[in-house]
Amino acid sequence: MSEILRPEDHPLPQRILHWSNLICFAFLIFTGFMIRFPFQGTPMNLMRNLHFTFMFIFLVGGIVRGFISVFGKERDIKCILLTRKDIKQIIPQILYYCFILKKEPEFEKYNSLQKMAYIAMQVLGVCQVITGVILYRPETFQTLGYMLGGLETVRVIHYLIMWIFIFIIVVHLYLVFTAAMAQFWFMLFGKIKKDH
């Protein structure tokens, strides 16, 4: 991995969408818990409306990010897709993160695990939208819900995917604050600040 942080690796539109996703995830997780485990006096209509508002923002952000990745000025679709080299580096990258290997495997913009997480989040995001819409309008999407095993199964899938998102976010934050503070400052403020 190059130690040089290049501003072109994270252009402004990508940084804005990155933080938009963080805000969406925070609200989606919070309101999701309130919907799944309401306490007495929970304003359920407000929770559902907030949940769907931020789902819509997340969905639009995902579509915009996909468009930028493929057609934008700073298209980076080739940086996201896994290559044969990435597949070979999955185990070494895990060993590096587990402090077993001292030298991190070489990579360009994203390492193999980052690419896998990025791809997984896109697929899981689509699954969350589909299961969420089924839960919101079960009578409209009764057939689709039935195909996925029924409403309770859809609810469990939606809930489990949320926990996968939480796991990925926690690991991401851990790695940012332990190995990529320069990128954090750049993503937050758009300014390069060297790690201390």
Walk me through what this model shows.
This protein is mainly α and 196 residues long. It folds into two domains: 13-75; 84-196, no CATH class. Helix content is 71%, strand content 0%. It contains eight helices and no strands. The protein has helices spanning 12-36, 44-71, 77-80, 84-97, 112-136, 142-147, 151-179, 181-189. The longest helix is centred in the C-terminal third of the chain and has 29 residues, at 151-179. The mean pLDDT is 88.
Which short descriptors sum up this protein?
single chain; 196 residues; mainly alpha; 2 domains; 0% strand
Shape: globular
Low-confidence spans: pLDDT under 50, at least 5 residues? Answer: none
**Largest pleated sheet:** none
Fraction of helical residues: over 70%
Distance linking N and C termini: 18 Å
Estimated structural class: mainly alpha
Q: Kindly estimate the percentage of residues that lie in beta strands according to DSSP.
A: under 5%
Overall mean confidence score, pLDDT: 88
Give a count of the beta strands, DSSP E runs of length 2 or more.
0
Determine the number of helices (DSSP H or I, runs of at least 4 residues). 8
The total domain count is 2
CA radius of gyration is 19 Å
Sketch the topology as an H/E string, one letter per element.
HHHHHHHH
